[in-house]
């Protein structure tokens, strides 16, 4: 019995000693594992930080591209809106043209730039209008009126005008371009006397802004002349040689492009 007890005690002592021998090795392994883990954790954190930085850069680049695309789209919209406003303004509300000849001197000189209002429907005496009129080519009076120092200047403008009409299919009256002053409207009776006076409805017109007498062009228009509902009678300010209703008769409202509202003088350009 005692021998068995002693044997058990020796065995137990040996087991404890073996464990004491093994425990230092286990502690070293734990220390090594902890050191490796302590080194690995910053590397993993660094890799995560770099990955997050790359994602942030890609996100920022995507936001930048979207911003540029939005700005470009807004620029296109503004440009299209600007073109639309220009089209509506200069092809439906107002128009620009050069004064083609010296018919309106001294108020308007040949080559002056005229801005006219297209939407006017009622024309009154003293309105200066821009219109087109078909005139016979064989008349000497027309030849002298249409030939001017600015004929070559306005030639390019006429070509551009034709191209614009073709491009936008606008119904613009055909014929020679004229600028003149309205002296009588629909329903009025016009007469030019032998002593070169202008009569409207039997009343002699006193025009303080006209510096010429008003001669009659013989054989062109018969007086007294009663104007129709859609007609106006126009005269050039240069009454002694201007081409106007004394030569080609009344102007129909359908031939009128607009009423002059502003003059840009050629000598100020």
Account of the 3D structure:
This protein is α+β, with helices and mostly antiparallel strands and 269 residues long. It has two domains: 1-94; 99-268, Umud Fragment, subunit A (Ribbon), CATH 2.10.109.10. 45% of the residues lie in helices and 19% in strands. The protein has a seven-stranded antiparallel sheet with strand order 1-2-11-3-4-9-10. It starts with a helix and ends in a 5-residue tail after the last strand.
Short description:
The chain is of the alpha+beta class and about 270 residues long.
Largest sheet, strands/sense/barrel: 7 strands, antiparallel
User: Which descriptor suits the 3D outline?
Assistant: rod-shaped
* Number of helical segments with 4 or more residues: 4
**How large is the radius of gyration?**
48 Å
N- to C-terminal distance = 137 Å
- What is the SS-derived class? alpha+beta
Quaternary structure annotation? single chain
Fraction of helical residues: 40-55%
Q: What is the topology, as strand order, of the major beta sheet?
A: 1-2-11-3-4-9-10
Question: Which stretches are low in confidence, meaning pLDDT under 50 for 5 or more residues running?
Answer: 139-154
CATH superfamily of the largest domain: Umud Fragment, subunit A
The fold-level CATH name of the largest domain is Umud Fragment, subunit A
Mean model confidence by pLDDT: 77
Which strand-content bin applies to the residues?
15-25%
């Amino acid at each position: 019995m005692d021998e068995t007890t002693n044997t058990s005690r020796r065995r137990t002592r040996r087991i404890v000693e073996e464990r004491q021998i093994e425990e230092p090795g286990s502690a070293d392994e734990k220390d090594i594992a902890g050191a490796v883990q302590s080194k690995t954790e910053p590397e993993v954190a660094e890799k995560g930080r770099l990955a997050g930085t790359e994602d942030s850069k890609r996100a920022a680049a995507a936001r930048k591209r979207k911003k540029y695309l939005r700005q470009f789209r807004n620029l296109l919209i503004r440009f299209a809106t600007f073109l639309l406003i220009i089209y509506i303004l200069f092809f439906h509300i107002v128009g620009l043209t050069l004064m083609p000849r010296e018919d309106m001197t001294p108020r308007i000189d040949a080559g002056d730039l005229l801005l006219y209002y297209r939407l006017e429907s009622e024309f009154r005496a003293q309105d200066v209008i821009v219109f087109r009129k078909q005139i016979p080519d064989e008349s000497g009076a027309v030849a002298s009126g249409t030939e001017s120092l600015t004929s070559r200047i306005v030639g390019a403008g006429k070509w551009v005008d034709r191209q614009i009409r073709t491009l936008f299919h606008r119904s613009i009256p055909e014929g020679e371009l004229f600028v003149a002053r309205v002296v009588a409207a629909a329903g009025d009776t016009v007469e030019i006397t032998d002593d070169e006076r202008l009569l409207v409805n039997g009343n002699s017109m006193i025009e303080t802004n006209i510096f010429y007498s008003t001669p009659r062009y013989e054989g062109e228009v018969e007086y007294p002349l009663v104007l129709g509902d859609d007609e106006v009678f126009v005269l050039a300010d240069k009454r002694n040689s201007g081409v106007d209703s004394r030569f080609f008769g009344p102007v129909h409202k359908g031939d009128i492009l607009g009423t002059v509202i502003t003059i840009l003088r050629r000598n100020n350009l």
